[in-house]
Amino acid sequence: MEVVLLERVEKLGQMGDVVRVKDGYARNFLLPRKKALRANKSNLSYFETQKAQLEAHNLQEKKEAEAVEPKLSGQSFVIIRQAGESGQLYGSVNTRDVAEVVSEGGFSLKRNQAVLDKPIKVLGLHDVRIVLHPEVSTTVTLNVARSEEEAKRQAAGEDVSLSADEQAEIAAEALFESEEVARKALAEDEESATDGAEEVVAASEEETPSA
Known about the structure:
- By secondary structure, the chain is α+β, with helices and mostly antiparallel strands.
- It has three domains: 2-68, Ribosomal Protein L9, domain 1 (3-Layer(aba) Sandwich), CATH 3.40.5; 76-161, Ribosomal protein L9, C-terminal domain (Ribosomal Protein L9, domain 2); 163-211.
- The protein has helices at 23-30, 41-72, 95-104, 148-155, 164-207, and strands at residues 2-5, 18-20, 36-38, 76-80, 88-93, 114-115, 120-122, 124-133, 136-145.
- The strands form three sheets. It has a four-stranded mixed sheet with strand order 4-9-8-6, with helices on both faces. A three-stranded antiparallel sheet has the order 2-1-3, covered by helices on one side.
- The longest helix has 44 residues, at 164-207.
């Protein structure tokens, strides 16, 4: 199907471009979301009469998006979900969830503005692209955790997806390494002290006059 674009569509074209797309893509995405019209004679004529108004509206929306972008860029949002010890979620986080948490954070966002290649199914920090306007996008971080406390630990760099046994093992290894370092340092101090004492004795013997 041939359509005329009413706005810039990524990887497809600019406003006013007439492009050929798959029928399903046009019917399910471009046409219902008013991103394009069928490229027939009447619609092309209508586009020409509305072009100036469409361009002005697009420019205004772009300016608004550019004002929001620096405020939203780099923001982190916490999403609490249940998950197993391995970090696998009991369910998933989708674009609707992203839109809700970002909107709750003070930014108006629709689910179709969040770009996910696939739903998020594991705990962790996930970068998500947000399309504020066809020509303006940014990235936010989703901190998916089992609790607010876990989210704080995760934000600090801790891998909360490890099981309790794995975390205990890592802690034990860290403790063993620190104790080993302490033992080596103590041994070196004792050796140094012994060498120093021997040097003092030797020096004392050299200074003692023979009978």
